[in-house]
Prior knowledge:
The chain starts with 7 loop residues before the first strand and ends with a helix. α1 (19-31) packs across α9 (170-182) and α5 (93-101) crosses α8 (133-144). It is built from 14 helices and 21 strands. The chain has 399 residues and is of the alpha/beta class. The model has no long low-confidence stretch (mean pLDDT 93). It has helices at 19-31, 42-45, 50-57, 72-82, 93-101, 107-114, 127-131, 133-144, 170-182, 216-227, 255-263, 306-313, 331-341, 383-397; strands spanning 8-13, 35-40, 85-91, 119-123, 148-149, 153-156, 162-166, 191-196, 201-202, 208-209, 231-236, 248-251, 267-272, 279-281, 300-302, 318-327, 346-351, 363-364, 366-369, 375-377, 381-382.
Amino acid sequence: MSILSGKHILLGVTGSIACYKAADLASKLSQAGAQVDVILTGAGENFVTPLTFQSVTGRRAYTDQDLWGNEAHVLHVSFGKTADLLVVAPCTANTMAKLAHGIADNLLTVTALAAQCPLVIAPAMDGGMFSNPATQENLKTLKNRGAVVVGPAEGHLASGLTGTGRMVEPAEILSQVRVVLGKNGILAGKKIVVTAGGTQEAIDPVRVITNHSSGKQGYAIAQAALDAGAEVCLITAPTAINPPVGARVIKVNSAQSMLDAVLAEPADALIMAAAAADFTPKTVAREKMKKRDGIPQIELTAATDILGTISIQQPHLFRKVIGFAAESQDLLENAAEKLRSKKLDLIVANDISAADAGFAVDTNRVIFLFPNGTSEILPLMSKTDVAEKIIEHTSMLLE
Ligand code: CTP
């Protein structure tokens, strides 16, 4: 279940051309399972209509007319009581000023004043308006009160000028929303280190030996840990996907550099989802190998075993250690052996010979094995769901 499932989110939309992106944000929040009630300001209505939002949320969108309608005396109070989060995106300089000073002259600002939930704002305005000391003071006031400010980004502005003032993309706002909602989750106050991706072992300055790992499962675990309120350090080999917002990302290449990074990050738990190399070239050619010199013989040697090293040299660096076993044969026997030899608290075994599990695909079929000999067989699931299960177990292990 997504962290947004069943959450009541108020989305305030104020008068900026970035309103068109707010429709995408409302759609993304709804698709993730949230109940989204949109409140448009009068200026917002000049750019988009309530129908735009009703069409994507499946719920009525509210305007200032509702402030004086039948529900008037209760609407903002009930919104304020039931909302899990108030997001104002785009947030103009004017609305930001009102929020900072407690001015309540429309449905959105009166609701903001009544709301007891966290506030996320995504400013959108011209660069000069954003850098104006008045706006900066308002921003500081809101931040000091605990508001989470996402952006603004730098780039082309509606005025035709370039500067800082563009609303950030909906995907980034969504990620921040998840971080804020996860604050009191099952891993609140815990630090989790997640490794991901396939390491790259250099042959020469341009060539590497790597594997098919996409990093998807590791990144999904990092996201699930963030959703559960953990402080997350993601140590990642090169991948083509974007790391989750809120994670501290450390980029590495080889198994050795991954080990060095892991050793520098003591934490409550280490989740080793990376496909770290088992073999590495014995020597790295200083210059690019040339074809004219013939076909090279590359001698391999054992790569650093990260979990093996930790279990022997630094067993107290992590309270709990979770590993993976990607196997193409004798899944359970091999996984059980790794669980024992690497002194793990849990091993996630997956059969990479199945077409719908393992590398690059979005689904996985895994079995959890525990040191006491028990196991849990999970059905075919999305990597996101597998990640949530791993995080649930991590939380239980840390109890
Ligand atoms: N692992 C590691 N260091 C390595 C290679 C793997 O710490 N150099 C970790 C992986 O991140 C995973 C676990 O060890 O959590 C098992 O990885 P896997 O490659 O399946 O097992 P190996 O022990 O390397 O054994 P083999 O490749 O022979 O199956």
